[in-house]
């Protein structure tokens, strides 16, 4: 069965590569986040942003670990661990995924429109995403930060609000970052859209119902260019 899955994955990947786009993505900041993990309690993930909000990048190890375990490790215990490099294009809603080590490499393109199911609730009017500045603060990166309450205007109840902290000294167009994702998930009519006016800065902290989902533990400015052409070529 594993051999069959491997063959299917190989041909699917080959088909995607044959149609692959060629583009370059530049990144301005890299943030390390502490996130919740079901097995370890907490884990860390690196995410890179470009100021325009179009591209996000991560090398989250769990994606590489899952891929290598599914296809290779049972019969190849001595293979080096896999690494991953993943770009999300908020404009095209596509993921570009590279899984690799010294011995093997795989490249995939995934269209989020074909993967994410639409909300079962029919939406006939634009969604307004509200960002209310609260009086609450929380320490992040050795500084007290103001918490924003993020929620859809149609559901202003406290249970529907996310606590989010932004750092506008690292400007990022969050309306672009989240606009494509929300439109993909909730809007089926092209004439409708999710409207938002979020603070324009790196996200440092997100919590739901007082439970932290992610928290920045470091942030730095970078100058990184990744060229996508069947692989992800990184220069910095």
Question: How does this model look, in words?
Answer:
The protein is of the alpha+beta class. It has 2 domains: 2-116 and 221-235, no CATH class; 127-218, no CATH class. Helix content is 19%, strand content 47%. The chain has 4 helices and 13 strands. Strands 1, 2, 3, 4, 5, 6, 7, 8, 9, 10, 11, 12 and 13 form a 13-stranded mixed beta sheet that branches. It is globular.
Ranges where pLDDT stays below 50 over 5 or more residues in a row are: 1-18
Overall 3D geometry?
globular
Structural class: alpha+beta
Number of helices: 4
Give the N-to-C terminal Cα separation.
41 Å
The number of domains is 2
Strand percent estimate: over 45%
Q: What does the largest sheet look like?
A: 13 strands, mixed
Summarize this structure briefly.
With 236 residues, the chain is α+β, with helices and mostly antiparallel strands. The protein has helices at residues 2-18, 61-71, 112-115, 174-186; strands spanning 23-37, 41-49, 55-58, 83-89, 94-100, 105-111, 127-140, 143-152, 162-167, 194-196, 202-208, 211-228, 232-235. Helices cover 19% and strands 47% of the residues.
Topology, please?
Elements: H1 2-18, E1 23-37, E2 41-49, E3 55-58, H2 61-71, E4 83-89, E5 94-100, E6 105-111, H3 112-115, E7 127-140, E8 143-152, E9 162-167, H4 174-186, E10 194-196, E11 202-208, E12 211-228, E13 232-235
Parallel strand pairs: 7-10
Antiparallel strand pairs: 1-2, 1-12, 2-3, 3-4, 4-5, 5-6, 7-8, 8-9, 9-11, 11-12, 12-13
Summary keywords:
236 residues, alpha+beta, 2 domains, 13-stranded mixed sheet, globular, disordered N terminus
């Amino acid at each position: 069965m594993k051999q069959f899955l491997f063959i299917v994955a190989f041909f699917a990947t080959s088909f995607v590569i044959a149609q692959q786009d060629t583009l370059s993505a530049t990144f301005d900041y890299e943030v390390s986040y502490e996130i919740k993990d079901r097995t370890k309690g907490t884990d860390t993930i690196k995410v890179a942003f470009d100021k325009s909000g179009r591209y996000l990048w991560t090398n989250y190890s769990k994606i590489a670990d899952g891929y290598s375990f599914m296809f290779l490790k049972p019969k190849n215990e001595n293979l080096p661990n896999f690494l991953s490099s993943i770009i999300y294009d908020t404009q095209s809603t596509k993921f570009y995924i590279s899984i690799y080590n010294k011995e093997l490499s795989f490249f995939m393109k995934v269209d989020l429109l074909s993967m994410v199911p639409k909300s079962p609730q029919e939406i006939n009017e634009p969604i307004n995403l509200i960002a209310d500045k609260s009086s609450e603060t929380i320490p992040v990166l050795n500084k007290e930060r103001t918490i924003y309450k993020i929620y859809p205007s149609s559901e202003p109840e406290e249970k529907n609000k996310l606590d989010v902290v932004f750092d506008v000294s690292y400007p990022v167009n969050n309306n672009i970052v989240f606009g494509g994702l929300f439109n993909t998930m909730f809007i089926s009519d092209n004439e409708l859209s999710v409207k938002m006016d979020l603070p324009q800065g790196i996200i440092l902290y997100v919590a739901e119902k007082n439970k932290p989902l992610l928290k920045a533990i470091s942030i730095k400015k970078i100058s990184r260019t990744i060229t996508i052409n069947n692989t992800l070529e990184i220069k910095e």
